[in-house]
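Comment thread on ticket #2218

A.B. wrote:
> Attaching the input chain for the structure job we discussed in standup.
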Amino acid sequence: MVAIMTFLTTHWVLSSLFLVFLLAYFIIEWRMRFAGPSRLSPQEAVALINQKQPLVFDLREKSKFDQGHLISARHCAAGDLADTLTKLKTPHEQPILLVCQLGQVSLASGTALKKSGFTHVYQLAGGVQAWTGADLPLHKS
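C.D. wrote:
> Ran it. Output below, let me know if you need it in another format.
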């Protein structure tokens, strides 16, 4: 314990930076958990699709979508998602599942939807890559 205290007092700048980064990490994790969409594993996404029939949006490029997508998915560019939901007159309580290649684009889009008032926004954690990794089928249109 004395060695730790000596290190902390001798290297106070390094110790302070460590605490700042640790605090920033927890703040980012907290914001992602409560402000962003709920992350679902592929198996949880299948259960959601079967039980609640959410609107499923594939946010990947059209060429990737055409190569294979979740069976009930609609293609939508990430930037057009809010306009698409407005055109569909989607109620804010409607479950929405967002899918992209790795889960990064759907995270950002889901966070924006949550901020605009949609209450049941879900993200396929790991995206289509996790879906295929779980040996789940893709539909080709």
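A.B. wrote:
> Thanks. Noting for the ticket: The first strand starts at residue 38 and ends at 40.
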